[in-house]
Amino acid sequence: MNALPSLYISHGSPMTALHPGKVGERLTALASALPKPKAIVIATAHWLAHSPTVGGAAHPETIHDFYGFPRELFDIRYPAPGAPAVAAQVMDLLDRAGLAPTLDAAHGLDHGAWVPLRLLYPHADVPVVPLSIQPQLGPAHHYAIGEALAPLREQGVLVIGSGSITHNLHDFRAGYSDEREAPYVRPFINWIEQKMTDGDVSALLDYRRQAPFAERAHPTDEHFLPLYVALGAAGEAFKAQRIDAGVDLGFLAMDIYRFDTAKAAVTAQ
């Protein structure tokens, strides 16, 4: 069995669940192109903890971690089972990498997890293990988390980072729209794509200094850090495929990245 790719998904606002648009089309197509995984480990920008925390619930609840949205969003449930045995594997891999993980046997699925997973696997029939991020520890730490989880891909486990390729919510008040795109979005996402194509991990890890408009695209890191989990899980010899899912509201770029190991990518062609 070839290793599964790892994925980085821009999950957008909770409204993506009701109006999936282009990202919904892209995720549906992506799911149809992949073998069905035996489980999913998803690092989500909406679960923050001081150390890597692994969700070990057998039946994780759907968390509605937002307010001010339509009632029908709060009625949505994503009843995917958990995977306690996979969670135990994640704990072991992270522990052996010296990353001091902790287990939360009750944590559910926040909208950074269930919104994109509902578009990938609408029948909620793939077990899910959520994973926290550590916003104070930066890109290299999250890349190391991904590296530690890489062996899971050989076992049919899909490793996903869920965040947003650009995420500056201050721009809700800036007057941007589908007709008036924020000027920093294209330079930033184009730089990321070029460095991915070049395989320049060192530049990507140093994005806050090197990428154009990095602090404008990400005033804080938490929605970008899951990208490094997915990137690290692909290994040093990776092939990155950018899947363009548009720009919502003129400032939330919805890029998806698929990461394959280079050898697996050659075999698949």
From TrEMBL:
One of the record's GO molecular function terms: zinc ion binding
Residues passing through the membrane, by range: none
The protein's required cofactors: Zn(2+)
Keywords assigned: Dioxygenase, Metal-binding, Oxidoreductase, Zinc
Extradiol ring-cleavage dioxygenase class III enzyme subunit B domain ranges (all copies): 34-239
Top-level division of the source organism's lineage: Bacteria
InterPro entries: Extradiol_dOase_DODA (IPR014436), Xdiol_dOase_suB (IPR004183)
Pfam families the UniProt entry points to: LigB
PANTHER family (UniProt xref): 4,5-DOPA DIOXYGENASE EXTRADIOL-LIKE PROTEIN
Family: Belongs to the DODA-type extradiol aromatic ring-opening dioxygenase family.
Stated name of the protein: Dioxygenase
Organism, scientific name: Dyella dinghuensis
